[in-house]
Amino acid sequence: MARFRRKTCLTLTGLVLFIFVVIIILKSLRPEGLGFGSPFGLGLFPQLRRAEGDNVQPHVPRDMDGTSGKIRSEERASEPEAALGQFPAPNYNLHVFYYTWYGNPKFDGKYIHWDHPILPHWDPKVAAGYPNGRHSPPEDIGANFYPALGVYSSRDPSVVEAHMQQIRTAGVGVLAVSWYPPDMRDDNGEPTDEIVPLLFDVAHKYQVKVVFHIEPYKGRDDLSMYNSVKYLVERYGEHPAFYRHRTSSGKLLPLFYVYDSYLLNSDKWASLLKDTGRHTVRNTPFDGLFIALLVEEKHKKEILAGGFDGVYTYFATNGFSYGSSHSNWRTIKSFCDSNNLMFIPSVGPGYMDTSIRPWNFQNTRNRINGKYYETAFSAALEARADVISITSFNEWHEGSQIEKAVPKTAGQTKYQDYLPHKSDAYLEITRKWAEKFDKEREKWLV
Fold first, then answer.
1. What is its EC number (predicted)?
2. pLDDT of the residue at 214
């Protein structure tokens, strides 16, 4: 019996030694850099690997909570740092306005927004002198420039991916997405809230943050705004791409741009934004920084009375309005500093909307090979802006985009382009000023 036990022990010992030798040999044959605990060769699929030192996790699509509609907070595997290293660091004090209203037959069953109608002048006599109807994509689109990605759909994941790469190339850290409540839309498009989860996920992959640019939807008042903000915070607030701005008091609060805020009187806004308001968000889980659109100088008083936290200027047309005029930015900044408000001027590369408003040539602002854009950035820095917003990434109808554009001639239509510069010219200009802005802020904070 003892002899049998000795024989068994020797056999087991030999088997263990054999297994150990096999493991050592296999380990020496593994591709360099593959983690020891990764038996399925995930090194062959870099998109499934995390940065060195992190656990390897397969990609799991972000799911939705079926009861509340809230995005779950579990983060999927991030891109390796090496992949993001090709981009400049994101500047989270540089925001860019972004539109998700484009569609094409492949993803949406029809063209959306690319077929924008030609808008008539309000004076019938003037309108009679211009064409009417609507554009007919893909050759004829409602824009003076033609996108390098073609007539894309905002629902196309590959397009969102390409956009985030361009945004990171530009050094921009925050996307201000145009937003309407679920089942609501702009005058020429379709509802787009369902696109937002995709946008958040791809933004997070590229370390870009997202804020909401709340449009003047039908029925927007103090109560509906409370419900809108509640919806946005509850649904997206736990997502890692949801942007929160650190205030001077150290609080981290979401930021909301409110387009055409002047359409609602200050009493209604005070109901939402003052501590004693009937539908106040203050000191609730839905508190935030609410940024009003400053168009006319008289709006300053209404913005203060309404309880807003800051102002932005949006329009990419220097001289078009009091707020968009570069010469007024220092004065506006002084007003903001005196009243504890954020000042967020909006810079733009140019403006040209005659494809959809053929009578509006007087508001065209030529790009001057990038000089117009650089002048706007310079004015924003001279005014010591708290944050700079860019109008826009892809508002193609108004020709204010920095997204890549290509030369194109279709029939009698010759689209504008960025020549003699490359298609990414305005991304590069943005990147340069993102770095300048960061350095200037460091000096101001000393």
1. 3.2.1.130
2. 98
* pLDDT cut 90: percent of the chain above it: 78
Backbone angles phi, psi at 252, to 5 degrees: -105, 110
Measured between alpha carbons, how far is residue 102 from residues 86, 155, 287, 397, 419 in Å? 29, 8, 31, 11, 25
Q: Are 229 and 288 in contact (CB under 8 A)?
A: yes
**Residue 216, both tokens:** 């003047």
The DSSP code sequence of 182-200 is: TT---TTS---GGGHHHHH
- 309-323 exposure pattern, b = at least 16 Cβ within 10 A, e = fewer: bbbbbbbbbbebbbb
The alpha-helical segments, DSSP class H, found in 30-94 are 81-84
Is residue 349 within 8 Å of residue 402, measured between CB atoms?
Answer: yes
Given a cut of 60, whether residue 438 has pLDDT beyond it is yes
Q: At which residue do the structure tokens 């699509």 appear? A: 61
Mean pLDDT of 289-314: 98
Bridging pattern class, strands 172-179 and 413-414 = unpaired
Residue-level pLDDT at 39: 26
CA torsion angle 176 162 367 351 (round to 10): -40
- Helices 425-445 and 371-382, packing angle to 10 deg: 10
Q: What is the pLDDT of residues 335-391, one digit of tens each?
A: 999 999 999 999 999 999 999 999 999 999 999 999 999 999 999 999 999 999 999
Task: Check the CA dihedral 395-401-403-408 and report its sign.
Answer: positive
CA distance 290 to 280: 12
What amino acid is encoded at 34 in this protein? L
Give one DSSP letter per residue of 162-176, joined into a string: HHHHHHHHTTEEEEE
